[in-house]
Design goal:
The chain is built from eleven helices and 15 strands. With 366 residues, it is an alpha/beta fold. The chain is globular. 37% of the residues are buried.
Length: 366
C-alpha cells in the first residue's frame, strides 16, 4: 500500500514546496511518513469536524489547501481550534498534509481551476516568478549526447512552457590530461588528450538541480564531469501568482457578475463601478489584493479575487471591474485538483473522498 510519504512525493511533484511563498508552511503537518494509507479525505480547511469526518470514513490522511499550522505553536493544550485539530489528528493517527501557495503558484493549480470554471481561454500567469530557473551546461562526447540529454529530460530539465526536450548544442574540442590514478573513458593516464565534444545547454528549475546533476553523472561516460550552473533572472512562465485569460465573448459588467454568481454559486459579488465590456479577465484565488496593479498593467477589464479591504477597491482607479467573490468561494474547487492528481497517481489503491464538511466561516443574508 502507498505510504504518507508516497502521497507527499506525488503532490510535491505537481506543486513543489520550493514554489511556496516565504511566509507559508506547506507540506506534511503531522503524522508518520511511513504510515500506510487507508483512505484520504480532501478539504479546503482542516478543522476538528474535518478530522471527525476522516475518522468516520476510515481515512487516516487529510489533504487540505490551507495549512493548519501556519503560525508557530508554543504549546499544544487544546486551547484553540488549531490545537484541538492537531490533538484529535495525533490521537487518531490521522496525518495532515497541506499544499497551499505552492499549489497557487503552479500553472495547473488553483488559479487554473478557477479560470476553467469561468470559461477563460488563452491563459497565462499574471505575475511570473523570477529566480527559479538555471541554465545547466555540460560537455559530452558526441557518442553519448543523446543518452545524457534523455537523462536530463527525465530529471525535469529542458522544459520551456508547453515545449519539452528543449536543448542547445554546439560542436567543440575538449582537452584534458588524465591523472596517473585515473581510468579515463578515452586516452591514457598521463597523456594529453584532445577529443571532439558537444557543449550541451538545458533550462533547469533550481529545485531539481540535485536530481539533474545525479542523472548527469550517471549518464555521462567521464569519471570527472565538467558542468556549469548559471542562475537566471528569467520569468518562469509556468510558475507565479494569479492568471489572466479571455472570455469567449465580451460581456457587459452585469452579465459578467452574473457569470461569477452562476459559475461559483455565490449569492453576492462585491465590486467597483465599471461601464465597459469585459473581455480580458485576471484572477487570483484567495486573498489577491497584491495583484491589483498587475491586473491593471496586463490590460484586464476585470479582476476577480477575494478578501479585498475597503481602501483596496480604490486601486481599480476606474480602469477595471474589481470583484471580490470571497476567499472560500474562489478556492472551493481546489479539492478537485487534489482528487485528480491522486487518482492519476494511485488509481483506486485507497479510498479517496472530498469532504462533505462545510468549512467556510462566512455566511450571507441575501
Amino acid at each position: 500500500m502507498p505510504t504518507v510519504q508516497d502521497l507527499a512525493r506525488a503532490l510535491e511533484a505537481a506543486a513543489p514546496l520550493a514554489y511556496q511563498e516565504s511566509y507559508d508552511n506547506a507540506g506534511l503537518q503531522c503524522g508518520n511518513p511511513q504510515q500506510e494509507i487507508t483512505g484520504v479525505l480532501i478539504a479546503l480547511d482542516c478543522t476538528p469536524a474535518v478530522v471527525d469526518e476522516a475518522i468516520r470514513r476510515g481515512c487516516n490522511v487529510v489533504v487540505a489547501h490551507h495549512p493548519i499550522i501556519f503560525k508557530p505553536l508554543k504549546r499544544l493544550t487544546g486551547a484553540n481550534e488549531v490545537e484541538q485539530t492537531l490533538l484529535k489528528a495525533i490521537k487518531n493517527d490521522v496525518a495532515l498534509y497541506a499544499a497551499h501557495t505552492n499549489l497557487d503558484n503552479v500553472r495547473h493549480g488553483v488559479n487554473r481551476k478557477l479560470a476553467d470554471k469561468l470559461g477563460l481561454q488563452h491563459l497565462r500567469i499574471l505575475d511570473p516568478k523570477t529566480g527559479t530557473l538555471a541554465k545547466l551546461i555540460t560537455y559530452v562526447p558526441a557518442t553519448h549526447t543523446e543518452a545524457v540529454l534523455q537523462a536530463l529530460y527525465t530529471a525535469g530539465a529542458g522544459q520551456i512552457g508547453d515545449y519539452s526536450d528543449c536543448s542547445f548544442r554546439m560542436e567543440g574540442i575538449g582537452t584534458f590530461t588524465p591523472g596517473t590514478d585515473t581510468n579515463p573513458f578515452q586516452g591514457r593516464p598521463g597523456q594529453p588528450e584532445t577529443t571532439p565534444e558537444q557543449r550541451v545547454e538545458v533550462l533547469l528549475p533550481l529545485h531539481l538541480q540535485r536530481a539533474a546533476l545525479r542523472a548527469l553523472r550517471q549518464a555521462h561516460p567521464y569519471e570527472e564531469v565538467a558542468y556549469e550552473i548559471i542562475r537566471l533572472e528569467n520569468e518562469h512562465q509556468e510558475v507565479g501568482s494569479g492568471m489572466v485569460g479571455e472570455l469567449p465573448d465580451a460581456l457587459s459588467p452585469q452579465e459578467f457578475r452574473q457569470r461569477l454568481k452562476t459559475a461559483l454559486g455565490v449569492p453576492v459579488v462585491k465590486h467597483t463601478d465599471f461601464d465597459r465590456p469585459i473581455k480580458k479577465v485576471a484572477i487570483c484565488g484567495g486573498a489577491g489584493s497584491f495583484l491589483i496593479n498587475k491586473a491593471r498593467a496586463a490590460g484586464a477589464d476585470a479582476y476577480v479575487t477575494g478578501d479585498l479591504k475597503y481602501h483596496e477597491y480604490f486601486g481599480a482607479e476606474g480602469q477595471l471591474l474589481l470583484c471580490d467573490v470571497g476567499h472560500f468561494e474562489s478556492e472551493q474547487f481546489t479539492g478537485e485538483i487534489f482528487r485528480d492528481l491522486l487518482t492519476e497517481k494511485f488509481g483506486s489503491t485507497f479510498a479517496l473522498f472530498i469532504a462533505e464538511t462545510y468549512t467556510n466561516p462566512v455566511r450571507y443574508d441575501c
